[in-house]
Design a protein that fits this description.
five-stranded antiparallel sheet; about 190 residues; single chain
Length: about 190
């Protein structure tokens, strides 16, 4: 009888834990949505980058047109849209450093193709570029672990990270790209 009681109490505790975790996830989503709908201009450093998203916050026209122009030159196969979670956890960017963004990467195994445009917060363009360079180094190391991904590693090593106070872009050639990405990036940045 004592063992049954312990099992029932354990099951109840696990169920309560699941309910609490589910509740936290739901409130975080609604908090992120309400922060985005209210402008999310004054985010604290402790808030996740999820409150800055292209869908909710609206990518600026400059950011969206930069991505469109770069995708014409660097067509990405099996496109995967970069989300707020990717911005924070994959790229390591701080929510306070990013005003708006839009990005597409390849979801094909062994293709590092990427087009990312970011409107940095005031005075944060260099911080964004430095963080993207760290991401680039991490990706070079990752692809270096796999001989079959040699082309992807080369593409990441030759990534273009450039920008101005108003727009920062990162472009990694997809495996199928043979165009001059430097000219495309210079065109987007007005150089």
């Amino acid at each position: 009888m004592n063992i049954r009681l312990k099992l029932v109490l354990s099951a109840a505790a696990l169920a309560a834990g699941c309910v609490l975790l589910t509740g936290c996830g739901g409130s975080a989503s609604s908090a992120a949505s309400s922060a985005a709908s209210s402008g999310a201009a004054s985010q604290s450093a402790s808030e996740p980058a999820a409150s800055v998203s292209a869908e909710e916050n609206g990518a600026s026209d400059a950011v969206a047109s930069a991505v469109d122009a770069l995708l014409e030159t660097n067509p990405i196969s099996n496109q995967f849209e970069i989300t707020a979670m990717n911005i924070e956890y994959d790229f390591g960017l701080k929510a306070d450093d990013v005003t708006s963004y839009k990005g597409i990467k390849s979801n094909d195994n062994g293709d590092a193709g990427l087009v990312l445009a970011i409107q940095p917060a005031a005075g944060k363009a260099q911080d964004v570029m430095d963080t993207l360079k760290t991401y680039q180094q991490d990706q070079v190391a990752f692809y270096g672990n796999y001989a079959e991904f040699a082309e992807a590693q080369s593409n990441v090593e030759n990534a273009i990270i450039d920008g101005s106070d108003d727009l920062v872009v990162m472009v990694i050639a997809s495996n199928d790209c043979s165009a001059d990405l430097t000219s495309a990036v210079n065109g987007v940045l007005g150089k």
